[in-house]
Specification:
By secondary structure, this protein is mainly alpha-helical. The chain has helices at residues 19-25, 29-95, 101-123, 129-155, 159-247, 262-349, 354-410, 415-466, 473-540. The longest helix has 89 residues, at 159-247.
């Protein structure tokens, strides 16, 4: 498992050709979405304006059809109707003999035809005026003939001549006028049809243009929407992939997103969080390994300390037995000293039995000398035992110091063990102080024992001189009494010292037992630390960094 966060190089700054794209990527998501909507609105407005322009053209074409197509046809029909009414009223005028009503109507019809022609001429193009000129020439000839010779023959009742004139001149003129109107109407209808066709073409072109513009607008909007969606969803997908990997424990994730929008800010925050989390996991893993190693060393030290404490307890038991033996020996010495005092008193009371007393004193002195010698030997053995206890105490103190150092290395997790190690250290120091006290008392016992040996030797000398100098018995008895009292006092002190030795050795044994219990507690703490370290390593092992 790697303990360093994977880093990838940042992309180079965008070139001039990609500056606009980079600028767009740095905009906020709301700006990007609104940009698509704004462009769609602009395209819709453009298409609508184009449609309005094209509909205006169609409206102009429709107005042109009305002006140039429908109205000229109406005007042509008005000329035809006025011309037909003129022929009808002309026939009536020709047949009328009394009042001039029909003639007035005929003249009004001619004025109507002239007025309709004037209106009709306004609708004609210059190339159509030639046909209108022919029509007017025929019209003038027709009105002149109908109002002149035809009317005269009708008034004169010359019907044969009138029919002949109609067949020869009036009918051809009327037919020519009708044909000219028909040609003009056909021409006007053709122009109207052309205008309608042009309007249809304009409508088709406008519709096609609007459809094309609408299609282009839709395609541009769709392309822009896809582009913006891709620019938005691509970093979101990358971020989602990194988050899924992070949820699976893969901390070596780095998003190469340098945008300043919401997704870019989220990616930057995710990168920082991943890096810090990876560093934390690495530190925890290292600390867990250190804790596991420290717990192993602590377990080893506690085991060694437990063994040492048990050995100390065993040695303390031996020393305790020896101290009890010393106490019994000292009590024996005290008893012998008392017996010696009684003998000396008996010597003072019964001088006559000095020889017997001297013999008894020699025997008692020999016994005391032997007893005191044994006391010296026991004191020496106790001194050796105390050296062993001192060595054990020093070793226990050294182990406690090592345990304190290991607890300090373990940090927070080793505080409990540090307390136990400190207690062990204090017990070791107390043991050392007790053994030093025992050593001093044993030295006192040895000194007293030497004094007792010297006193007994002096008693032996005095008893040897009793037979030679009976005269000095009194003074020797007095001196021997003082010496015996001193020896009794020293022996009593030796008894008390031996009792203290036994008590102190018992304290050493208890300290060794407490040290064993503390060592077991230390071992349990070490096992708990090892379990915690394994649990931490298991938890950290779920992550890859």
């Amino acid at each position: 498992m790697s303990t360093s966060t994977a880093q990838t190089e940042r992309p180079a700054p965008p070139r001039s050709g990609l500056r606009l794209l980079h600028w767009f990527d740095n905009r906020r998501l709301r700006t990007k979405v609104l940009a698509v909507s704004l462009i769609g609105i602009v395209l819709a407005g453009t298409i609508g304006q184009l449609a309005i322009i094209q509909m205006g053209k169609i409206a102009d074409e429709a107005a042109a059809i009305e002006t140039e197509g429908l109205k000229p046809v109406d005007h042509a029909n008005a000329v035809r109707e006025a011309f037909l009414q003129t022929r009808i009223d002309g026939l009536s005028d020709q047949q009328q003999t009394s009042d001039g009503t029909a003639h007035d109507a005929y003249l009004a019809d001619i004025d109507a035809v002239d007025a309709a022609l004037a209106t009709f001429e306004k609708d004609l193009d210059p190339e159509d005026m030639q046909m209108m000129a022919d029509f007017r020439a025929n019209w003038d000839a027709y009105t002149e003939l109908a109002g002149g010779e035809v009317l005269t023959l009708a008034r004169e009742r010359k019907f044969d001549q009138l029919d002949a004139l109609r067949q020869k001149e009036v009918a051809p003129l009327a037919a020519a006028l009708g044909q000219t109107l028909t040609d003009l109407e056909d021409m006007i209808n053709g122009e109207a049809a052309t205008a309608v066709e042009h309007a249809r073409s304009t409508y088709t072109s406008a519709r096609t243009m609007v459809y094309i513009a609408l299609g282009i607008g839709l395609l541009l909007t769709l392309a822009l929407s896809l582009f913006v969606a891709r620019r938005i969803t691509r970093p979101i997908d990358q971020t989602a992939t990194a988050l899924r990997a992070l949820a699976e424990g893969e901390l070596a994730q780095h998003l190469d997103l340098d945008t300043k929008d919401e997704v870019g800010q989220m990616a930057t925050a995710l990168n920082v969080a991943s890096e810090k989390l990876a560093e934390a996991m690495s530190d925890i893993a290292g600390n867990a390994e250190t804790l596991a190693s420290a717990s192993q060393e602590l377990s080893s030290v506690s085991g060694q300390m437990s063994g040492t404490a048990q050995e100390s307890a065993t040695q303390a038991g031996v020393v305790s037995s020896a101290a009890e033996q010393v106490s019994r020996n000292v009590q024996t010495v005290a008893t012998g000293t008392e017996e010696m005092s009684a003998s000396i008193r008996e010597i003072a009371q019964n001088a006559t039995s000095a020889a017997n007393v001297a013999a008894d004193a020699v025997r008692v002195a020999d016994s005391a000398n032997s007893t005191v010698a044994k006391l010296g030997e026991s004191s020496s053995e106790v001194g050796n035992v105390i050296k062993v206890i001192n060595s054990i105490a020093e070793q226990t103190n050294l182990l406690a110091l090592n345990a304190t150092i290991e607890a300090a290395r373990a940090g927070e997790a080793g505080k409990g063990f540090a307390v136990v190690a400190n207690e062990v250290k204090e017990l070791a120091q107390e043991t050392a102080r007790a053994t030093e006290d025992i050593s001093r008392r044993i030295e006192t016992i040895q000194t007293d024992t030497e004094a007792a040996v010297a006193a007994i030797s002096q008693i032996s000398g005095i008893i040897a001189q009793i037979n030679d100098a009976q005269t000095t018995i009194a003074s020797a008895v007095e001196e021997q009494t003082a010496t015996t009292n001193e020896m009794s006092r020293n022996v009593s002190e030796a008894a008390l010292g031996s009792t203290d030795i036994a008590d102190n050795i018992t304290g050493v044994a208890r300290s060794a037992s407490d040290t064993t219990v503390a060592a077991e507690s230390t071992s349990q703490a070490a096992e708990e630390l090892a379990r915690m370290a394994a649990k931490m390593q298991q938890l950290v092992g779920q992550f890859r960094y």
